[in-house]
Amino acid sequence: MAISADLLEILICPACRAKVELKADGSGLRCVACHRVYPVRDEIPVMLIDEATIDG
């Protein structure tokens, strides 16, 4: 089971408040503005700034 489209519509980046999109491989949610990638573990997005990595 993947992350639902309804959930993706309401999730935002906690750092800059921009929209997030699911990465192609499903491993994380990428912010469209600041390019932070929040991991997805056991199909649950971990929306913590300290857990995010910066995607170049």
Look at the structure and give the CATH class.
Mainly Beta
- The CATH architecture can be named as Single Sheet
Structural class assignment: mainly beta
Q: Describe the global form.
A: globular
Properties at a glance:
mainly beta, five-stranded antiparallel beta sheet, 56 residues, N-terminal domain of TfIIb
If you had to describe this structure to a student in words, what would you say it looks like?
- The protein has 56 residues and is mainly beta.
- The chain has a single domain, classed as Single Sheet (N-terminal domain of TfIIb).
- The protein is 11% helix and 30% strand.
- It is built from 1 helix and 5 strands; from the N terminus they run H-E-E-E-E-E.
- The protein has one helix at 5-10, and strands spanning 20-22, 28-31, 36-41, 44-45, 53-54.
- Strands 1, 2, 3, 4 and 5 form a 5-stranded antiparallel beta sheet that branches.
- The longest helix is centred in the N-terminal third of the chain and has 6 residues, at 5-10.
- The chain starts with a helix and ends with a strand.
- The model has no long low-confidence stretch (mean pLDDT 94).
